[in-house]
Amino acid sequence: MAKPFKTTISDGIAEMILEQPPVNAFNCQGWLSIANEISDLGNNQEVRVIVIGASGKGFCAGVDIKELAEDPSLIVEVNRGNYETFEAIHRNSKPVILALHGYVLGGGIGMAGASDILVASECTRFGLPEIDRGAMGGGAHLQRMFSVQKVRYMYFTGEFIDAHEAYRLGAVERVVARDKLMSTARDIATKIAAKSPQMVSLAKESLNGIEDGCLEDKYRWEQGFTLQAYTTNDSAESREAFVDKRDAKFPGQS
């Protein structure tokens, strides 16, 4: 089975490009392979900084809803793949820079919220449409990017915000034209790669340690509610409606 990404290493910078057409939505095995690759890059002595970008229309649309619609029990493995990917980024000894374009949804938000620095193209949109997909999760990582009230608005409504709004709110370091995205991320990575690897590693560990609470524990809490959601009829209806490309209908709605 082909890996859903390509990785190159040059001058201490690892570039990982997500490649899962058409929308970079990954099944459980895809997420696990991404997690393993990011972990391996962190343990590679040749690597000082990791840059993650993507090909196609958008950075990441999250999980493969069609796979879960066919077999909802796979949610356990998908949750594991998501958890391990986000943890591999957040707990990595190397700084992780994300180069974002198009849609950053669901699991894409998890990756973004777990990372160290975000660069976004002008076309980037951030969102957690889980409430319309019959799932939970991602709030902990979104809250690492935005304020509590902004996260709740996005979580409850499923609405997106664009790159310029994300920049205004402080989550994004740079907003650039699409054709300048990777070069901008590389420029930042090059500045970091020139520093002492030992000092950078200590800096990341220390910064992780002063955060409010444990990101992984918060996300694990959320995942329990995803499993609970998957036992409900409303969750099944949400997933089926998404696959069928129709509006979901819930009890009590006219």
Q: Could you characterize what this model shows?
A:
The protein contains eleven helices and eleven strands. It has 254 residues and is α/β, with parallel strands linked by helices. The protein has one domain (5-178, 197-209): 2-enoyl-CoA Hydratase, Chain A, domain 1, CATH 3.90.226.10. The strands form three sheets. A six-stranded mixed sheet has the order 1-2-4-6-8-11, sandwiched between helices. The longest helix has 16 residues, at 28-43. The mean pLDDT is 94.
Keywords:
alpha/beta; single chain; 11 strands; 47% helix; 2-enoyl-CoA Hydratase, Chain A, domain 1; six-stranded mixed beta sheet; 254 residues
Quaternary organisation: single chain
- Would you identify the CATH architecture? Alpha-Beta Complex
Percent in strands: 15-25%
What is the averaged pLDDT score?
94
Structural class estimated from helices and strands: alpha/beta
Overall strand count: 11
The shape is globular
CATH superfamily: 2-enoyl-CoA Hydratase, Chain A, domain 1
- Share in helix: 40-55%
| Cα gyration radius (Å) | 18 Å
Give helix and strand order, one letter per element, not per position.
EEEHEEHHEEHEEHHEHEHHHH
Instruction: Using the coordinates shown, work out and report the CATH topology.
Output: 2-enoyl-CoA Hydratase, Chain A, domain 1
